[in-house]
Amino acid sequence: MNINIDYNLLLSLVVGVFVGGASAYIGSIMVLKRLALVGDALSHVALPGIGLALVLNLNPFVGAFAALAVAVLIIWQIQTKTGLPTEALVGLLFTASLAIGILVTPEPELLEALFGDISRVAVSDVVLAVIFSITIFSVIYRLRNALVLDLISPDLAESQRINTAKLNLVFLALVAIVVALGVKVVGILLMGSLVIVPAVASKNFTRTLRGYGVASACLGVISAVGGILLADGLQLPPGPMVVLVSAALFLISLLSRSLLRR
Amino acid sequence: MQSILKVKNVSVHFNSKTVIQGLSFELNKGDVMAIVGPNGAGKSVLFRALLGLLPYEGEIQWPENVKIGYVPQKLAVERDLPLNVIEFLQFKGASVNEIHESLHSVGLDHCVLGKTRLGQLSGGELQRVLIAYALMNHPDVLLFDEPTAGVDIGGEETIYSLIEKLHTKTGLTILLITHDLNIIYRYAGKVLCLNKSKICYGSPREALDTKVLEELYGAKVNIYPHEHQH
Fold first, then answer.
1. Coil, strand or helix at B61
2. Which CATH superfamily is domain A7-256 in?
3. Which structural domain range is residue B191 located in?
4. pLDDT per position as a tens digit, A235-255
5. Which of A35, B35, B125, B230 could be disulfide-bonded to B121 (CB atoms 3.0-4.6 Å)?
């Protein structure tokens, strides 16, 4: 196996480190809030946005983010105004938008949008990824206590004058950003794993909220870097390799869970 | 006696459905008042209105800068939620010393329990941690929503003697929702029977009788008030 650290690979590693870490960090809260699958379905909404952006000659990230922002507002409305279970509606809405996305996205870009391609990143992609990832880290770090309090007792959170509706809107907006970023790394179909798997693995061996957040972010970074390097060495597409590395880490965490319980 | 809470003609509606109708009562500093009523009678809704968490008609008057501690009915805590007791108590923005102090005041040892995950506490321990949480900023009033739901009989006794101890030691004003009539006779100076509107109000021995309970719960309920003081 021959790993050449060339310029392109370096750029994609930088994107991988930031996006992998940020997705996993925000994913740690999504898993606790049982929003992991919503996040997965949400990524499908990015496709019509990417498709339209390509047709209109815009940056695909902008298109993806715009489409996701609309979807997030819809989820938030369902959550706060109706209290209906989000699952079924989210499933319907998002598979429909995936269908629309497949129709509007030009064919050469379709594969890249679905499975990601981090081996060709522009400097502008790197800048976007770094700025937004740092934003996500710092905002989630500050809101994490309020988010978890709202999760275990919305009444208690509100009695402390936490505006839970606003809190959840901010959270979902960050989810939209992280999904738009992640689509570039692993693609629409695999984005779910970038937020879910590191968090679920960390839950197996951590006991504190702080440890859980840190471990999730670290496993996210390791998955991204490991996957990108393996893909480069083995001449395989990076998206699926990132996901497989994180799945392997999950298996190891399962072992550690059973060891810890002894 | 200094008044701490005045509730005047308060009504709460949810989507044109009336949950509380024209409720009035008054509390003095240091009172312990129990709120009884069947499920869906508006007891928890009353608490939410008192906390200012939902819109209501009428007047609820607290003194300026009153601090209200709230102990919710139950928490949605999964067993493997990665959150330990100290981390949870830090949500209130308290220092480590304050946390140790408040755990001590509810009879829990921070060395033993501080690092335990919230989801692995017993019902009684979790309830005491919630009380510690409510006590953290030295409140003037404590609202308890069914303090012993999900606690076994031995734990129940501990929780109530803890509440009583807090009351005698600090002179806290306490409002508690409960279904347990014995608890009301033993610990509460006042009782409010609520089923959408006020069914009874006053000292338990005067306000509660078989007729009131029948009206409240719609079935015959026998009461055996304790004659001696515990």
1. strand
2. ABC transporter involved in vitamin B12 uptake, BtuC (1.10.3470.10)
3. 1-65+181-230
4. 998 888 999 999 999 999 999
5. B125
Q: Is residue A83 scored above 70 in pLDDT?
A: no
**Residues with Cβ within 8 Å of residue B192, at least 6 apart in sequence:** B25, B33, B34, B35, B36, B198, B200, B201
Closest alpha carbon within chain B to A156: B72
Spans of chain B, pLDDT less than 50: 230
As for how many domains chain B has, the answer is 1
Q: Is B92 on the interface with A (CB under 8 A)?
A: yes
Q: Does the CB of A56 have a partner CB in chain B at under 8 Å?
A: no
User: Reading across the β-sheet that carries B173-177, which strands appear in turn?
Assistant: B68-71, B141-145, B173-177, B32-36, B190-195, B197-202
Q: Does B82 reside within a domain? A: no
Are the Cβ atoms of B70 and A156 closer than 8 angstroms? Answer: yes
pLDDT above 50 for A101: yes
Task: Kindly state whether residue B191 falls inside one of the protein's structural domains.
Answer: yes
pLDDT at B34 (0 to 100): 92
Query: In the prediction, which pLDDT does B154 show?
Result: 73
B187 has a chain A CB within 8 A of its CB: no
Q: Where are the domains of chain A?
A: 7-256
Q: Do B53 and A159 touch (CB under 8 A)?
A: yes
- Residue B39 sits in a domain whose CATH number is 3.40.50.300
**Mean pLDDT taken over chain A:** 87
In a domain, B83, yes or no: no
Q: Does B151 touch chain A (CB under 8 A)?
A: no
**Cross-chain Cβ contact B70/A159 below 8 Å:** yes
pLDDT at A5: 63
Structure tokens at B115: 């690092």
| Cβ-contact B101, B110 below 8 angstroms | no
